[in-house]
Design goal:
By secondary structure, the protein is mainly beta. The protein folds into two domains: 5-121, Thiol Ester Dehydrase, Chain A (Roll), CATH 3.10.129; 155-247, Hotdog Thioesterase (Thiol Ester Dehydrase, Chain A, Roll). The protein is built from four helices and eleven strands; from the N terminus they run E-H-H-E-E-E-E-E-E-H-H-E-E-E-E. It has helices spanning 24-41, 46-50, 174-183, 187-190, and strands spanning 5-10, 54-65, 74-85, 88-96, 102-114, 120-121, 155-160, 197-202, 211-222, 225-234, 240-247. Strands 1, 2, 3, 4, 5, 6, 7, 8, 9, 10 and 11 form an eleven-stranded antiparallel beta sheet that branches. A hairpin with a 2-residue loop joins strand 9 and strand 10. Helix 1 (24-41) runs antiparallel to helix 3. The longest helix has 18 residues, at 24-41.
Length: 248
């Protein structure tokens, strides 16, 4: 079993934004696709875990984009499992263009949950051994994420959970949370380019038909650009579903 997995993509028109570059959401879908395919090859994919009545759930994400590829551009995605941090499985990603130049880097942490109780479990001891690669794409400890301050001004937009938002586990796909977050940004920020960085902590699931509120708040700016905090909550009980931070 190879600890490093390669996939190649050609940026399609439906994956591109109005400027003809890859959408941040499409890039996140590439990561999910590559992680799932590699996990299947390693014997720890979704179907393998379903047989044990457990599921993989993405807990944390940190994506850094140096350049978004354009429509019809060919890219290569390299991914590998790095190791375990307590009960969290770490997976890394590196996206390059045809010249081998790095376009994006990402680190993620996954957790396994009981399919019936939805509670986290330590699946490390019960999963089959699979090879690891001792390299970080992004050196991030994936520590606590800051929270929006509700005593300060913030932007807010409601969304209804559609069937199209759900994944195989029947809860909202992680990329949709990011999409909701980006929709609350001022036009001057998110109108013509994707974020340079996306950090996300996924905290709870939400089901079909629920209404959610997506909030964003400016968190500072410097020579590298603007920074925003985001929060997704269930409108019914204000339960926090995700925290995010984007840099532009």
């Amino acid at each position: 079993m190879n600890p490093i997995h390669f996939l190649h993509y050609k940026v399609r028109s439906y994956e591109s934004d109005s400027c003809g570059v890859l959408k941040a959401i499409s890039l996140l879908n590439y990561l999910e696709d590559a992680a799932g395919e590699h996990a299947n090859l390693l014997g720890v994919g979704g179907r393998d875990l379903m047989a044990r009545k457990i599921n993989w759930v993405l807990s944390r994400l940190h994506l850094k984009v140096l350049r978004y590829p354009h429509w019809e551009e060919k890219v290569a995605l390299r991914t590998w499992p790095y190791g375990w941090k307590k009960i969290f499985a770490l997976r890394e990603f590196e996206l390059t263009d045809e010249k081998g130049e790095i376009l994006a880097l990402a680190t993620t942490s996954f957790i396994t949950v009981d399919a019936e109780t939805k509670k986290p479990i330590n699946a490390g001891p019960i999963l089959p051994d699979f090879p690891l690669h001792n390299e970080r794409a992004l050196n991030d400890s994936l520590g606590p994420m800051p929270k929006i301050r509700t005593d300060l001004p913030f932007l807010e937009k409601p969304f209804l959970v559609r069937r199209n938002d759900l994944d195989l586990n029947q809860h909202v796909n992680n990329a949709v949370y990011v999409e909701w977050a980006l929709e609350t940004l001022p036009d001057a920020i998110g109108g013509d380019s994707g974020p340079k960085e996306v950090e996300a902590a996924f905290r709870a699931e939400v089901s079909y038909g629920a209404r959610v509120l997506s909030r964003s708040q400016k968190h500072g700016e410097n020579e590298d650009g603007d920074c925003f905090l985001h929060q997704i909550v269930n409108e019914k009980d204000d339960r926090e579903l995700a925290r995010l931070r984007t840099r532009w």
